[in-house]
Model the fold of this input.
Amino acid sequence: MGRPRFRQLAHTADCRLAVWGADGDEILHNGVAAALSVALARAPVGVPREWRALPARPRSFAATLVAVVNEALFLLYSRREITVAVARRRGRTLLGTRPLRAPRAALVEIKAATFHDLSPTRRRGRLRATLTLDL
Done:
């Protein structure tokens, strides 16, 4: 898929990220990579050892983006798994995970991704969204 596409934006309290991709799958992957890069202070890399289905099927793409990022954060903090891939197949969203290698621990605790100013839009052939992480 190539290098994740995101950058951190200035924000007074929380962490705000501009995330983009050519299609829905790529922006979901890049949103997860952006959030986990903030949490781990490094990009999440590796090959998935297990695929986990998103528990619910959100009604909109914005809700899917927030749900996928929040599920990846849940897996990081509760199961010590890093999400390294995201795919959508047959109406399901799947997260490819691998174990977090000990003794490395998450450096920044992120409470959740929020809907604040999310606004996914398509411009010049690619999707873009502003992802706000509640620290």
User: Anything to note?
Assistant: The chain has one domain: 15-134. The first strand starts at residue 6 and ends at 9. The radius of gyration is 14 Å.
